[in-house]
Design goal:
about 230 residues, alpha/beta, six-stranded parallel beta sheet, about 40% helix, about 10% strand
Length: about 230
């Protein structure tokens, strides 16, 4: 039975995917390392950390520069980026099909948001084809809308457009939304959109900020009391 979260509840909860709901960043590391070896190089830890939360195009530019295809990411050709993205996406499909491990508290968080009647969106930098595979684990009925990294006209995280688009699709004010993120890139995107952010680090540390609330896991988030977070963050 659906409960009412109350008039002070957020207009929507906007969930990131990789590293937030599922522990897939480790799978991305496998695919990226495999491609680097395929090109005769190695992905450095610093570049991998900078990729967390980023979109496919930006990540491929960094990866190709790291293995020596170009001096800096901006010099990598579009053809090289497209070929690398196709290779990595195919490898990720293989890994996704083996199953995605949940992050702590994630299944319960999705279920509770639904039970409380709070609108939800999945807002991910991952491309649609891979997201469709992930939704087999996440549950397609867990979200009212989904926004993928290849559906924002190149305006990917850390730009605010993914979160702004999700709010538009839901018909809500992004300033009344709670976004849940695990990476500096994702947090920056959600904050730029005007959302209050629950920041739950996974692969890289997150710092405190005026529009974010740090938590150790989704199990530490009280979805029935989300409205109170707006007052605390004001």
């Amino acid at each position: 039975m659906t409960r009412d979260a109350g008039q002070n509840s957020p207009a929507a909860v906007l969930f990131d995917m990789d590293g937030t709901l599922v522990d897939s960043e480790k799978l991305w590391t496998i695919a990226l390392d495999d491609y680097a070896r395929h090109r005769g190089g190695a992905l450095t830890d610093a570049t991998r950390e900078a990729m967390v939360g980023s979109n496919m195009t930006r990540s491929m530019r960094m990866l190709l520069a790291d293995v020596g295809i170009a001096g800096v990411p901006e010099e990598v050709s579009t053809a090289e980026v497209d070929a690398a993205a196709k290779w990595v996406a195919a490898r990720m499909e293989e890994l996704f099909e083996l199953g995605l491990p949940w992050r702590p508290g994630a299944p319960e968080a999705l279920r509770e948001a639904r039970e409380l009647g709070i609108p939800t969106a999945l807002v991910t930098s991952t491309i649609r084809s891979l997201t469709e595979l992930a939704l087999e684990t996440l549950g397609r009925d867990s979200f009212d809308v989904t926004v993928c990294g290849d559906e924002v006209d190149g305006k990917n995280k850390p730009e605010p457009e993914p979160y702004l688009k999700a709010a538009r699709l839901l018909g809500v004010d992004p300033a009344r939304c709670v976004a849940i993120e695990d990476s500096p890139t994702g947090v920056a995107a959600a904050e730029a959109a005007g959302c209050l952010v629950i920041a739950i680090p996974c692969e890289v540390p997150l710092q405190p900020g005026p529009h974010r609330i740090l938590r150790d896991s989704l199990a530490d988030v009280d979805f029935a009391a989300l409205g109170e977070l707006f007052a605390r963050a004001a």
